[in-house]
Design goal:
Layout (H helix, E strand, L loop, with lengths): L3 H11 L1 H6 L4 H16 L5 H18 L3 H26 L4 H13 L1
Helix pairs in contact: 1-5, 3-4, 4-5
């Protein structure tokens, strides 16, 4: 049996299982889930909130039934969350974001 952290890394960073099931990009899925949760609850949810909720759910399930799958999923969500944080930091460091480029193109059309 492989190490749980190695398996979580495979799921999140190599995305073998996720890709096979065609769930789409992990970070994008969490952002979309946050939008849906916001619409359902009437409160603003962020992708960070979704990661926190999913990790909490896995730990809650583990408190009722000790299963390696709960811990694997929690590790995977934690790894996915770190990737999401890294992606957002990289986007913030980029001089022109996608929205700025889109705005610039729109301004050119108006001229």
């Amino acid at each position: 049996m492989s190490n749980i952290l190695e398996k979580a890394n495979e799921i999140i960073n190599e995305r073998s299982e996720e890709k096979e099931r065609q769930y789409g990009p992990f970070s994008e899925g969490m952002e979309r889930a946050a939008q849906i949760a916001s619409g359902m609850s009437g409160r603003i949810w962020s992708a960070d909130d979704m990661y926190i909720a999913m990790i909490a759910l896995k730990f809650s399930r583990q408190s009722y039934n000790f299963k390696e799958d709960n811990l694997l999923d929690a590790c995977s969500y934690i790894g996915g969350w770190q990737n999401y944080i890294n992606e957002k930091q990289a986007e913030a460091a980029t001089p022109h974001s996608w929205n700025e480029d889109r705005f610039d193109r729109a301004k050119e059309k108006i001229k």
